């Protein structure tokens, strides 16, 4: 029987379930008689290059605790692996007799997995490379959705409604509350902010997606109309990658205490509102909260993240390499998913587009098709809130 040693790493921005994938992988590897040693690499490929690996065979109790906490327990990295370092990586793997390398991450990790697979093949090395998907952006090609996305969607869709209750509690002069949302270049995550907007008077009032650039004057007009129509404070969702055309120079603030040494697009738009409408505009930037809020972790997300870790081991032992563990949706009505192997040759690094039929751009709301797509991923849970007492 051929014996295997496994190496696993975590890469990119953590999610609330990234450690669940790590746990699933280690648990499955420990079940296999032909797997001897399981290593973890601290801070992604940097740990391999530094030769600092951690033996995980006896770390199961700690990993089970870590699976329920935010952050990546091994540490992640966005280190851009250079082509001349491929050979160094392979050499380090061979020194430890590692013949399975699994990398948990997003688009950058998929490129790394494919590049190392191709290099190893060209050198005649029998090492299997497997990508385990992870991103709150949900923009990986070849999978119905990505582990981490469901929890981020649950956090955003619910927290928007909580913020709305805070807004309606204050009897003040109407102002603009802006929430800057992560999600990369695609609208998968920002669109979930309006999952529970059922009528025009509901929150959020305006939602923008990175696929649809906005004009500075048109944006101002929409904000002004919403303030006039609602006669209350309004809630506006801005993706951090939104492109704004024709924004006046006096709106381009050079420094922003919220964002450190650079001004986010929300801050620029808030300045634009204040200068031209004379209305107070405040900005909230949740940033890491999308990734670290355990109270709103999706149960489905946790289970699937654990499963893709398990399946990575199964596929590697079957001889697969240069691909990703993909989630395939079998049913949405009574939600059911399965897992399959997806080659990365034509997919690595590509971003999955947010479908136009998922978004009603005129009314700033998702379509029913998108609601049906996301709802199972947030455990079909709605915020249990009372808007206002009457009597």
TrEMBL record:
Residues 6-315 form the Phosphofructokinase domain. Diphosphate binds at residue 13. It catalyses: beta-D-fructose 6-phosphate + diphosphate = beta-D-fructose 1,6-bisphosphate + phosphate + H(+). Its main location: cytoplasm. Substrate binds at residues 135-137. Its cofactor is Mg(2+). Pathway: Carbohydrate degradation; glycolysis; D-glyceraldehyde 3-phosphate and glycerone phosphate from D-glucose: step 3/4. InterPro entries: ATP_PFK, PFKA, Phosphofructokinase_dom, PKF_sf, PPi-PFK. Non-allosteric. HAMAP family: Phosphofructokinase_II_B2. Catalyzes the phosphorylation of D-fructose 6-phosphate, the first committing step of glycolysis. Uses inorganic phosphate (PPi) as phosphoryl donor instead of ATP like common ATP-dependent phosphofructokinases (ATP-PFKs), which renders the reaction reversible, and can thus function both in glycolysis and gluconeogenesis. Consistently, PPi-PFK can replace the enzymes of both the forward (ATP-PFK) and reverse (fructose-bisphosphatase (FBPase)) reactions. This is Pyrophosphate--fructose 6-phosphate 1-phosphotransferase. It comes from Metabacillus bambusae. The gene is pfp.
